[in-house]
């Protein structure tokens, strides 16, 4: 019986230690917007963001997701009166210059922001948001394998929530509105 109690106590302690070390999401960044201006998280103070990581050469997922994000932002504005800025952060700074990003994001709407930077800057922000990406060689060029999570960032720059791409748009809208309302944003 004593051995069983010790074993159970050890398992409970190990489980509680594992939960205490959960990683934070989000943080400070320094990048360049589609107009060539240096930006940080402070540049967006007072504006909640829908933050997505992708690349302009993506053949299918990124354009579909970005169109969906723009639609969600519009529905959030209609439902709550709160303007949420869609932000597209490249994971391919080698190809995604400010000029290329400008043409890409403006195809989805005038309020969409595109962000790029040095490889080190992109590595820093993707580490902060725990975003996976990897260059995959294809026919003399490459594609980027990457996660497709959408992040809600509050007007104070803090991470609030995230959404998988399979979550229906109406559910994302409801959660965004509820989260922003609950956070006072």
Label this structure with key terms.
about 180 residues, alpha+beta, Glutaredoxin, 7-stranded mixed β-sheet, two-stranded antiparallel sheet, disordered N terminus
Derived structural class = alpha+beta
Measure the end-to-end span. 53 Å
How much helix is in the residues? 40-55%
Indicate the CATH class. Answer: Alpha Beta
Record field, number of beta strands: 9
How many whole angstroms does the radius of gyration measure?
Answer: 19 Å
Number of domains: 1
User: Remind me, CATH topology?
Assistant: Glutaredoxin
The coarse silhouette is globular
Return residue spans where pLDDT drops below 50 for at least 5 consecutive residues.
1-22
Q: What percentage of amino acids are in beta strands? A: 15-25%
Order of helices and strands: HEEEHEHEHEEEEH
User: Mind summarizing the main beta sheet?
Assistant: 7 strands, mixed
Q: Determine the number of helices (DSSP H or I, runs of at least 4 residues).
A: 5
Q: Find the CATH superfamily.
A: Glutaredoxin
CATH architecture: 3-Layer(aba) Sandwich
Describe this structure in words.
- The protein is globular.
- The strands form 2 sheets. A 7-stranded mixed β-sheet has the order 2-1-5-4-3-8-9.
- 40% of the residues lie in helices and 24% in strands.
- The chain has a single domain, classed as Glutaredoxin, CATH 3.40.30.10.
- Helix 2 (61-80) crosses helix 5.
- The model is unreliable at 1-22 (pLDDT under 50).
- It has helices spanning 2-20, 61-80, 98-106, 119-129, 169-183; strands at 30-33, 38-40, 49-54, 85-90, 113-116, 133-138, 141-146, 150-153, 159-163.
- With 185 residues, it is of the alpha+beta class.
